[in-house]
Amino acid sequence: MKKWHPQCEIKTGKALPLQSKPIVEHSLMTTQKTWMGIRICSYVAIVLCAAWAVFYVFNFYGLLTSKGWMSRDVDWTQRAALKIAFFVLDVFSIAITIGLCVKAALNFLKGTRDGVVFPKSNVKLFFWLALAYFVHRLCWANEPILFREGFNFGYTHSNIVIPFCILFFAFMYKIAADAVEENRLTV
């Protein structure tokens, strides 16, 4: 039996059969698949952040002790203040970056439970994430400071491009969150 949708009757004046599911049912299935996709991506993001954190724990352990599979020789006696400041900045920037990523993923999970597509709480997180990731990338590119005497400022294109993309995404996310909030208030 062919199904029909009331919208067809409104536009043409007569009921027209549809070959597929009604629009409302199809839209509901698509929405459920989208919510499931958001949930899956959020869980995967949390797992990847955990793996990223474990990698950096081993990396920092190797820098501090010169032991382990990621060990490196760092002479902590020469230019100690610069090396310690750099190391602490690197540790804090990566910890903040990973923490913000996990918090955003948890906010998305909470949003799927509450029916909110763009949780407003993620807007500031993405702006801070752009800054924290920029600092992390600068630290990562300048890690040779720990091994050499001289101070060579390292720069790669990803130090600017990736944080800029995160910043661009933050602005787009803010626009979308504001539009959803305005739409919700209008209805």
Shape: elongated
Structural class: mainly alpha
Q: For the largest sheet, list the strands in their spatial order.
A: 1-2
Q: Write the H/E string, N to C.
A: EHEHHHH
User: In percent terms, what proportion of residues is strand?
Assistant: under 5%
- The termini sit apart by 36 Å
Mean pLDDT equals 78
Oligomer: single chain
User: How many domains?
Assistant: 1
Number of strand elements: 2
Helix content: over 70%
Largest sheet data: 2 strands, antiparallel
SSE diagram, text form:
Elements: E1 3-4, H1 6-12, E2 17-18, H2 23-65, H3 80-114, H4 121-141, H5 158-186
Antiparallel strand pairs: 1-2
Helix pairs in contact: 2-3, 3-4, 4-5
Written description of the protein model:
The protein is mainly alpha-helical and 187 residues long. It has one domain (20-186). The chain contains five helices and two strands. The chain has helices at residues 6-12, 23-65, 80-114, 121-141, 158-186; strands at residues 3-4, 17-18. It has a two-stranded antiparallel ribbon. The radius of gyration is 25 Å and the shape is elongated. The two termini are 36 Å apart. The model is unreliable at 1-12 and 20-24 (pLDDT under 50).
